[in-house]
Amino acid sequence: xxxxxxxxxxxxxxxxxxxxxxxxxxxxxxxxxxxxxxxxxxxxxxxxxxxxxxxxxxxxxxxxxxxxxxxxxxxxxxxxxxxxxxxxxxxxxxxxxxxxxxxxxxxxxxxxxxxxxxxxxxxxxxxxxxxxxxxxxxxxxxxxxxxxxxxxxxxxxxxxxxxxxxxxxxxxxxxxxxxxxxxxxxxxxxxxxxxxxxxxxxxxxxxxxxxxxxxxxxxxxxxxxxxxxxxxxxxxxxxxxxxxxxxxxxxxxxxxxxxxxxxxxxxxxxxxxxxxxxxxxxxxxxxxxxxxxxxxxxxxxxxxxxxxxxxxxxxxxxxxxxxxxxxxxxxxxxxxxxxxxxxxxxxxxxxxxxxxxxxxxxxxxxxxxxxxxxxxxxxxxxxxxxxxxxxxxxxxxxxxxxxxxxxxxxxxxxxxxxxxxxxxxxxxxxxxxxxxxxxxxxxxxxxxxxxxxxxxxxxxxxxxxxxxxxxxxxxxxxxxxxxxxxxxxxxxxxxxxxxxxxxxxxxxxxxxxxxxxxxxxxxx
Length: 524
Fold this sequence. Notes:
Elements: H1 4-9, H2 14-24, E1 29-32, E2 37-39, H3 40-56, E3 64-68, H4 73-85, E4 88-92, H5 98-108, E5 112-116, H6 120-130, E6 136-140, E7 150-151, H7 152-155, E8 172-178, E9 186-191, H8 192-205, E10 213-216, H9 223-236, E11 239-242, H10 248-258, E12 262-264, H11 267-275, E13 289-292, H12 299-308, E14 313-319, E15 326-330, E16 344-345, E17 350-354, E18 367-372, E19 379-380, H13 384-390, E20 396-404, E21 410-415, E22 419-422, E23 425-428, H14 429-437, E24 442-452, E25 456-465, H15 473-481, E26 492-495, H16 509-515, H17 519-523
Parallel strand pairs: 1-11, 3-4, 3-5, 5-6, 6-7, 10-11, 10-12, 12-13, 13-14, 25-26
Antiparallel strand pairs: 1-2, 8-9, 9-19, 14-15, 15-16, 17-18, 18-20, 20-21, 22-23, 24-25
């Protein structure tokens, strides 16, 4: 057992990353928010003062602090201030209802909550449902009637220095609640070791560097934006610009104004940028690195990006929260030759595909994707049974179906829940989506299963036309019939104005399944 002094000298926890970047690049711009910017020295000092304020209010190593907010500079400060104290941060999706927020506050055992001012009624309602008043309650921004709530933003400038706290590499620093398919979300515990191992994978295989100027528009409550991009930026000493959301006009303006070199978004957001009227008039010449995830980039959209942003190299990131989150990356040189692939396992992840008995299958065979990695979650908070199940036989089981090729590239066939079993045949929703995306009048599409009295499940597609296009069901089905086997052609197709998405831009197929659950019965 190492002495405390040795442990301290060897420390490599999340807050150390900012401390070291501030020493290397004190005067370099670290963070640009809507109303305040920081160089690395200033950001480090603001985090230290905020950690001191949290400590004065009673939060200590191992306590849980929830944050309910859209993106802002305060979110970044809270993240590193909590890490400085060994306080476990609990990010909450700001799109949730009060009952869902209440579940996370209760299940995590949060001792404090910091919320954006206009989300305070949501937080207050959740606490009221639990009959709780937490020891720390604060808002980002002032409220006229804020009895019992402090103004967090003032804490950032309160004098004081944070107490020294020894945070071990595998102490939990985050509980990330995953949406999943179950009735209640699971809380994935992430440690500094998991996160920093993942940052190294992102930096090495994602082509990241200290001179990046990165634009963050997807929610920081999700580890894709926070830990594939903002965390590595802080580690490297790169510059981060934070916007509250991925509004296309605001994104394009920020790229031009700040000479952004690096940007991440799911395919749905990339599509919205390409369709925005401001795209043609914005100076996007600084942009060099583009990243996407959440789903594979439709081939036609990939080609359009190549044509309209020829200077941009693209990377596809695949993973999940429990891997902190990246597991595989498809690099720029393989985007067109292996479109749709998730790429190769990253530096710090071992990935294989197994059958139902957890035996590894050869290339070309579909099975469940499983991982071994220091990036993996410590387990699920207060859920030993689910932890044991997820880590059975010494591998983390992703719940995704995939297949490796002979050269070590992984293709994600589907989530297990997204594989459609119709009339005894398996249909990958992704394959059908790719075929529909080939139609020139299709902007977006989602394919999923609906219950069917004859086929058990039927292939259903919801299609959004490009602006000005006249698209109907018969046209799309005829298009599919020329490219897909008969059993893969959608039995039901709906033309809609939009698809439901979460704040990260990921299409919510579970909502579509619910909305159209009775479609087969209504049409028969």
